[in-house]
Amino acid sequence: MAPMQVLVVLAIIGIVLPSAALAAEFIVGDASGWTTNFDYKAWARHKVFTVGDKLVFKYPVGKHNVFKVNGTGFHHCIIPPANEAFTSGNDTITLLTPGKKGYICGVGKHCAKLGMKLAIKVVLPHHHH
Predict the structure, then answer these.
(1) Predicted local distance difference test score (pLDDT) of residue 22
(2) Cβ-count burial 7-18 (b if 16+ within 10 Å, e if not)
(3) Locate the Phytocyanin domain: which residues (predicted)?
């Protein structure tokens, strides 16, 4: 009897929870967090980032920050205006649109010299039928 009830519950969960509930949360850099001299290109290489997912940048407050940048800003480490910085040390950024996204640290030469930059490609969720 129990297995049938479990299946019914799972079916209900499947109907009630839209695909957005499957959104993933990525701790940028995993245990290392958002830091200098870390290979973010390698970190992101095999991950799939989907619209609705969240990036969490963890770092000691005041030591780093996070800026969203375009391709040019990413390649040349162009720091946007300071009022656009995320500075909480636990910044959660929800990926709302598909496409390429770039994030850099705007402190000192962290982006230009120490590799503190992350580029990802965000894709639309696949709906399973």
Answers:
(1) 73
(2) eeeeeeeeeeee
(3) 24-124
Total residues found in the chain within this entry: 129
Residues forming a β-bridge with 99: 122
Residue 89 parent element (H or E): none
Question: What's residue 7's pLDDT?
Answer: 61
pLDDT digits (tens, 9 = 90+) for 8-41: 655 555 555 455 557 899 999 999 999 999 999 9
Kindly state the DSSP code that residue 127 receives in the 8-state scheme. P
What is the DSSP-derived secondary structure letter of residue 86? Answer: B
Question: Is residue 100's pLDDT more than 90?
Answer: yes
The fold for domain 22-123 equals: Immunoglobulin-like (2.60.40)
Q: Could you please report the per-residue DSSP string of 30-71?
A: GGG-S-SS--HHHHHHT--EETT-EEEEE--BTTB-BEEE-H
